[in-house]
Amino acid sequence: MTDVSLGMPQLPAPDYPADVRARLEADAREIIARYPGSRSALLPMLHLVQSEEGHVTPTGLRFCAELLDLTTAEVTAVATFYTMYRRKPSGDYQVGVCTNTLCAVMGGDAIFESLQEHLGVGNDETTEDGKVTLEHIECNAACDFAPVVMVNWEFFDNQTPESARKLVDDLRAGREVRPTRGAPLCTFKETARILAGFPDERPGAVEASGSAGEASLAGLKLAKGEKAGPRVVSPRGGEGPASAGQPVTETGEAPQPHPSSHDAPRKTAASDPDNPAGPVAKEGK
């Protein structure tokens, strides 16, 4: 008789090698000790196992379940609910393009389409060299700087298809890439360990994180009765501050090689090609 495989997963999942298990268990115990109830440690522990293999494997699920006295079904339910937990091998750099409403009409759809063609991958797929995983994201919570691309959860603001293609090319070539704001880039595995709650030990990384940008704080300042600062224009590329990823203002303090997307909205919403600038109708129709 011929054996027939039903595609069922191996049960139980294999354990980590003894040395890896010991190292991860020491870290996991540190995480668990932060909480009054061990179950609360599940989210950071999933980041911990993701930092080991670049995605949450059946072995990682088993590890979390054993240490937290949960069933693998309970752990799997959480790991499959949150999109930050990868379910298959992914690249060193997770490139997420916001395609939610504002970013889409400002050019996010065009950026995502351009990157798919440029990289030769679809949504949630990884380049052959294992460097970049591309995915569309519903919202990066940075509408003031639309369209926004994130790399391992660091912001690259006011992007264009051209600047986004250069960004992924630099990542694949190993060239230094600096976010528009926030900490310097590190690999996806390193990011996962930081999200697990372990300190970022890179010199200057914590100090570089900074706070919200001026565009995000303008409304708050006005609400407090303060005078809003000059409108911030984040350069899309070129010379000067653009290469350092630093925003410039309209006061002439630095060159502006590209206009802000707020000044020149782009009619590139692939989701509505007949009305690229958005629907226009009289009230009541």
UniProtKB/TrEMBL annotation:
<comment type="function">
    <text>NDH-1 shuttles electrons from NADH, via FMN and iron-sulfur (Fe-S) centers, to quinones in the respiratory chain. The immediate electron acceptor for the enzyme in this species is believed to be menaquinone. Couples the redox reaction to proton translocation (for every two electrons transferred, four hydrogen ions are translocated across the cytoplasmic membrane), and thus conserves the redox energy in a proton gradient.</text>
</comment>
<dbReference type="GO" id="GO:0003954">
    <property type="term" value="F:NADH dehydrogenase activity"/>
</dbReference>
<dbReference type="GO" id="GO:0046872">
    <property type="term" value="F:metal ion binding"/>
</dbReference>
<dbReference type="GO" id="GO:0051537">
    <property type="term" value="F:2 iron, 2 sulfur cluster binding"/>
</dbReference>
<dbReference type="Pfam" id="PF01257">
    <property type="entry name" value="2Fe-2S_thioredx"/>
</dbReference>
<keyword id="KW-0001">2Fe-2S</keyword>
<protein>
    <recommendedName>
        <fullName>NADH-quinone oxidoreductase subunit E</fullName>
    </recommendedName>
</protein>
<dbReference type="InterPro" id="IPR041921">
    <property type="entry name" value="NuoE_N"/>
</dbReference>
<keyword id="KW-0411">Iron-sulfur</keyword>
<dbReference type="InterPro" id="IPR036249">
    <property type="entry name" value="Thioredoxin-like_sf"/>
</dbReference>
<keyword id="KW-0520">NAD</keyword>
<feature type="region of interest" description="Disordered">
    <location>
        <begin position="222"/>
        <end position="285"/>
    </location>
</feature>
<comment type="similarity">
    <text>Belongs to the complex I 24 kDa subunit family.</text>
</comment>
<dbReference type="InterPro" id="IPR002023">
    <property type="entry name" value="NuoE-like"/>
</dbReference>
<keyword id="KW-0408">Iron</keyword>
<dbReference type="InterPro" id="IPR042128">
    <property type="entry name" value="NuoE_dom"/>
</dbReference>
<keyword id="KW-1278">Translocase</keyword>
<keyword id="KW-0479">Metal-binding</keyword>
